[in-house]
Amino acid sequence: MFTSKNLWLVLLLSVLLTSCANMTHRERNTAVGAAAGAVAGSILTGGSTAGTLGGAAVGGFIGNKIKR
Question: Is the dihedral of CA 47, 53, 56, 59 positive or negative?
């Protein structure tokens, strides 16, 4: 059964997935890199904001530079 929290999560995920439909390969790599970097930065620093933002920046940069 859906609670209001689950409903918002499903809505957010559907919006995020459809917003990636028209991205170029490089833009998609940048977004994936930033997301993965944010998660890794958060885990490695125990959830600090600076670690999360730093990880997102580094991950986004690396994702942008990766070629097919």
Answer: negative
Structure tokens at 13: 């995920």
Q: What is the pTM of this model?
A: 0.69
Contact 45, 52 (CB under 8 A): yes
Per-residue three-class SS string for the chain? CCCHHHHHHHHHHHHHHHHCCCCCHHHHHHHHHHHHHHHHHHHHCCCCHHHHHHHHHHHHHHHHHCCC
Convert the pLDDT of each residue in 15-41 to its tens digit: 777 777 788 989 889 988 988 998 899
Residue 37: count of CB within 10 angstroms of its CB:
22
Long-range contacts of 38-42, Cβ-Cβ distance < 8 Å, separation of 24 or more: none
